[in-house]
Structure formats: C-alpha cells, structure tokens
Write a structure and sequence with these properties.
There is one protein chain. The protein is an alpha/beta fold and 198 residues long. It has a single domain, classed as Nucleotidyltransferase, domain 5. It has six helices and five strands. Strand 2 and strand 3 form a beta hairpin. The N and C termini lie far apart (42 Å).
C-alpha cells in the first residue's frame, strides 16, 4: 500500500480554529514502507511562502487524488484536523468540492489513537511531542510565521517528520509482537461469535 506521512501547518490570526479561513502555509508528505515504517524517498515540503497557498493546494490535490483513495494513504497524528483544513481550503479556492465526510470511508492511519492508549486513555497531555521526543509543539509555527522566520519553520517541519517517522517505525516493529504475546497469554479464552437466528 502506498502510505505517506502527512502533515499540514496552518496560520490563523485568532485564537479559535476556523477551517474556512485559517491559511494552510505548508503541506508535508513522504512515502513510507508499510511493513517496516522506513521512509521511501525524500521528505517533500510544499511552502506557501515560496509561491502561494492556492498553488500548494493545487499541487497537493494532484498528488493526493481524492478520487483514488488507495493511491495515497495518509499516516499522521490527528489527521481529521489536516483533512478538514485541506477540504475547506480546496473549496474556498474552487479547486475541489469534496465533503469532509469523505474521509469516513478513506483509508488512513492516525497515531493519535495509539497515543491515547499509551497515555492511559486520557486526552489531556496526549500530544505528539510527548511520545516522540519532539522539543516544541506545533503552536510555535504560527509565531514563527508571523515573524516571517521561514528557515526556522522548515527546521521545525523536518524535525517533527523525523521524530514521527522514528516513532511510527518503532510501533510497526513492536505492536505485532505485543499482539502475539497477548494471544499466547490468553490462548485458553474461547469467544463464541456465532449468531443464532432460531
């Protein structure tokens, strides 16, 4: 399967998330090996400050191809945020009219669910940086963008991608073994899932 690390960075002038008006300033993606978690090819960063938001949205739409869901399977953290941002901004520019509900049937892998379990089932403190060793949170990017410190944003994006990919690779190797251990420990448990219609 063609899995791709995916992350967007947005800029908003208010303290509230506004998918319709918050500007997408970067779109980052990189192909990954579904069996090992290793990267395949270089990290790609589409930057609005080098062209425009509309330009990077058009480019990414042609790469992502929503009409072909199995050609680009996103792997990320809190992907519904990225999906809503992309769909609303694609719609604003007339690039595509795709419903945010589209992703209810689109394949993707979101590590936020894994992080939630690793965080004891608690949403508070369930952040990417907690589990990857990343130094800063994504909130820092908005401040850097306001100051036009694009070099620092690019460094942040690359560091975040490196930390994410390292964690994903670890999970790809460790989770299957943990699941087998669970099955061995609980081999005496028999679950009857048959349904009687009589």
């Amino acid at each position: 399967m063609p899995e791709y690390y995916l992350d967007t960075k947005t800029y908003c002038k208010s303290s509230q998330i506004d998918f319709k008006n918050d500007q997408i300033i970067s779109i980052t993606y990189q192909q990954m090996d579904s069996r090992t978690g290793a990267t395949k090819g270089a990290l790609q960063v589409l930057k609005s400050w080098e062209s425009s938001e509309e330009d990077i949205l058009k480019k990414f739409y042609n790469i992502f191809k929503p009409e072909e869901p199995w050609e680009f399977i996103p792997v990320g953290f809190n992907l519904p945020f990225d999906f809503n941002s992309l769909f609303m901004r694609w719609s604003e520019y007339g690039i595509a009219n795709v419903s945010p509900l589209y992703f209810s049937s689109h394949p993707y892998i979101d590590l936020k669910h894994v992080a939630l379990l690793c965080n004891g089932g608690t949403f508070k403190g369930c952040t990417l940086e907690k589990f990857t060793g990343q130094v800063y949170s994504g909130d820092k990017v908005m401040d850097l963008y306001a100051k036009k410190n694009f070099k620092a944003i690019e460094k942040y994006i690359k560091d975040e991608a490196r930390c994410f990919v390292r964690w994903y690779g670890y999970l790809v190797f460790e989770l299957p073994d943990d699941s087998l251990k669970f099955l061995k420990i609980n081999k005496d448990i028999q679950v009857d899932i048959s349904i009687s219609y009589e």
